[in-house]
């Protein structure tokens, strides 16, 4: 919004030229989202506590250490959404349709997560929305977003799939691009949701992935850098760097309250929304496979659940002591802080590997 209001006034005041630069506005989005989180965080947490007598329901079959967290409020993702949306609208070019697509996915998935969290709290158990209803809602949102992205993206990239490490390879998926993109968004959303099980565990890898995709969006949207790096140029995607910057700031602000011992949990409201946002950005920038590398920690957590369920149904045996993966290490006796920090290190290493794909082509 500031871009649209102030750039036309640059002839009268040269200093306003700063608002033309994506890097300046991305930095502004980071700081603004962080300030919003700090200013509104205590009020939001107090409000959530007043509405949640017993806090987030704790699984009876979960690790014993989690029972001490009983009474901690959930739905803290509302704070992330508030800071992220406000900061994005303030600093981004609001005429950019890619920004609105990603916001649509973020808020849409956040609404699904909110409904899930609300049902868990109202019923006082760990079961919220029926899995089929949740999946159906995500499919509808993802399909609308994908069709919107196709309508915005110019030929021949509208339904094309880029392959990392190969500069010239583009696979035209045709209409199969729709279910593929929906799968990416839903997969990323639910993978982050599965990872969100310990204090601070999910939000830092989300922040790291958002920082990586801020750079990717900036490079993909810039003709000069895209040609130099031999990546596919998608005009207009650079504006998503502002959104990613806002997500970094909102994540930092939320971590202030989610750091061990957590004052508030993200809940499905936050995990589904930020995961869906990362998925949507990867689709827009044609870096879906890179998201699987950068967000490899989320992939590992999701695979651990799939393997556990498949093994138990087929053989009656469990591969892990408990799934998702972080619970397996809890059951092995690892301290929660040890698991969280080591998983953060893994996320940082995978992010560097994902960034390497930009040059290794």
In the predicted model, the low-confidence regions spanning at least 5 consecutive residues are: none
Radius of gyration: 20 Å
How does the major sheet shape up? 2 strands, antiparallel
| The number of domains | 1
| Average predicted local confidence, pLDDT | 91
Helix coverage percent of residues? 55-70%
Describe this protein's structure.
The protein is mainly alpha-helical. It has one domain (2-356). The chain has helices at 2-6, 22-51, 77-91, 97-123, 131-152, 177-195, 203-220, 223-229, 240-258, 267-284, 288-294, 296-315, 325-331, 336-356; strands spanning 160-162, 170-172. A two-stranded antiparallel sheet has the order 1-2. Helix 2 runs antiparallel to helix 3, helix 6 packs antiparallel against helix 10 (267-284) and helix 10 (267-284) packs across helix 11 (288-294).
């Amino acid at each position: 919004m500031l871009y649209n209001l102030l750039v036309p006034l640059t002839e009268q005041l040269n200093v306003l030229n700063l608002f033309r630069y994506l890097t300046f506005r991305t930095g502004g989005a980071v700081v603004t989202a962080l300030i919003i989180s700090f200013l509104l965080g205590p009020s939001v947490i107090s409000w959530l506590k007043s509405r949640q007598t017993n806090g987030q329901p704790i699984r009876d079959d979960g690790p014993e250490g989690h029972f001490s967290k009983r009474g901690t409020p959930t739905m803290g993702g509302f704070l992330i959404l508030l800071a992220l949306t406000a900061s994005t609208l303030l600093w981004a070019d609001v005429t950019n349709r890619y920004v609105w697509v990603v916001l649509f996915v973020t808020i849409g998935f956040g609404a699904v997560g909110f409904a899930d969290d609300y049902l868990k709290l109202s019923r006082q158990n760990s079961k919220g929305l029926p899995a089929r209803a949740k999946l159906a809602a995500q499919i509808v949102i993802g399909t609308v977003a994908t069709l919107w992205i196709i309508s915005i993206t110019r030929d021949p990239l509208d339904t094309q799939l880029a392959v990392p490490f190969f500069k010239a390879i583009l696979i035209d998926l045709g209409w199969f691009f729709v279910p593929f993109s929906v799968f990416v968004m839903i997969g990323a959303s639910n993978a982050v949701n599965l990872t969100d099980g310990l204090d601070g565990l999910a939000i830092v890898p989300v922040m790291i992935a958002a920082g990586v995709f801020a750079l990717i969006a900036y490079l993909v949207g810039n003709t000069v850098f895209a040609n130099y790096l031999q990546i596919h140029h998608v005009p207009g995607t650079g504006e998503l760097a502002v959104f990613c910057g806002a997500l970094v700031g909102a994540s930092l602000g939320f971590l202030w309250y989610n750091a061990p011992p957590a004052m508030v949990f993200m809940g499905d409201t936050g995990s589904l929304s930020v995961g869906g946002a990362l998925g949507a950005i990867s689709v827009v920038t044609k870096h879906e496979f890179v998201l699987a590398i950068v967000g490899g920690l989320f992939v590992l957590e999701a695979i651990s659940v799939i393997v556990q369920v498949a093994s138990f149904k087929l053989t009656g045996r469990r591969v892990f002591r408990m799934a998702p993966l972080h619970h397996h290490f809890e059951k092995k006796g690892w301290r929660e802080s040890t698991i969280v920090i080591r998983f953060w290190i893994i996320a940082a290493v995978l992010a560097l590997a994902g960034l390497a794909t930009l040059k290794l082509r």
